[in-house]
From TrEMBL:
A motif (DGA/G) lies at residues 153-155. InterPro entries: Acyl_Trfase/lysoPLipase (IPR016035), NTE (IPR050301), PNPLA_dom (IPR002641). One of its GO terms (molecular function) is hydrolase activity. This is Patatin-like phospholipase family protein. It comes from Fulvivirga sedimenti. It comes from the Bacteria.
Length: 252
């Protein structure tokens, strides 16, 4: 049984993070409350949208309205090939007030501070820059410059940011949407780099999953590209199916 104050941890994963919405829908159907959210990268985006009061179906529609072409806005920089401003415009359009305190559910966002080599957590004050920093995939996006530091994707050091919830929640549910495929045949240097990055991220998840009471990971997300928004419906359904099966299995 899942009782008491429930915290939800949402991993990164690019477009695969849409599976978080399916898990949240399953939690709603099983009447499992969500009292706090901690997220990184895609998980930070999904967490903010849900915490601001939008339904899972509405958020799915928002994401589907964004084309991959819109994301591919060149940065013309040696530090990244794309601009993160597209995400900033998206947040302004659908959330409204740029404030953690304005959310209906408390949210913590993790981002990687590349100057200090640590994970920084944000849960108060301005929110949009924190989310953009958290979702700034290295090399792909130009780092987010904020508060005197340069930030990249929170998943690099912490793809399952459970720490902010440990002392504040009775039960922690984790949704991980960034698995790596068991078989991999590299075709070029870029794929080797991506594979190495994913393996590193999975390692930092392993040391944190044991701190969660419930860990849910759809088994077949590895084949989706991080920018594959065209598969949003399929990814959503995989997240929903995995979570529904899990909650039924534990008898909730």
């Amino acid at each position: 049984m899942i009782t008491g104050k429930v915290g939800l941890v949402l991993s990164g994963g690019g477009a695969r993070g849409i599976a978080h919405l399916g898990l949240i829908k399953a939690m709603e159907e099983h009447k499992i409350p969500i009292d706090m959210i901690s997220g990184t990268s895609a998980g930070a985006i999904i967490g903010a949208l849900y915490a601001s009061g939008h339904s899972t179906e509405t958020i799915l529609g928002m994401i589907k309205s964004v084309s991959t072409y819109q994301l591919l806005s060149p940065a013309y920089s040696l530090k990244g090939v794309l601009k993160i401003e597209v995400l900033m415009k998206f947040l302004r359009k659908y959330i409204g007030k740029d404030s953690f305190e304005a959310l209906q559910i408390p949210l913590t966002v993790a981002a990687t501070n590349i100057n200090r080599g640590v994970t920084d957590f944000f849960s108060t004050g301005e929110m949009y820059q924190a989310i953009c920093a958290s979702a700034c995939i290295p090399v792909l996006f130009h780092p987010v410059e904020w508060k005197g530091y340069s930030y990249i994707d929170g998943g690099i050091l912490n793809n399952l940011p459970v720490e902010p919830l440990i002392s504040k929640c009775d039960v922690i549910v984790a949704s991980h949407t960034n698995p790596i495929m068991d078989e991999f045949q590299p075709r070029n240097a870029r794929q080797v780099m991506e594979r190495a990055l994913m393996m590193s991220i999975v390692c930092n998840v392993e040391v944190r999953k044991e701190k969660c009471d419930h860990f849910i990971e759809p088994s077949d997300l590895g084949g989706y590209n991080v920018l594959d928004l065209r598969s949003a419906d399929d990814i959503f359904e995989k997240g929903y199916a995995a979570a529904s099966e899990y909650f039924q299995r534990i008898g909730y």
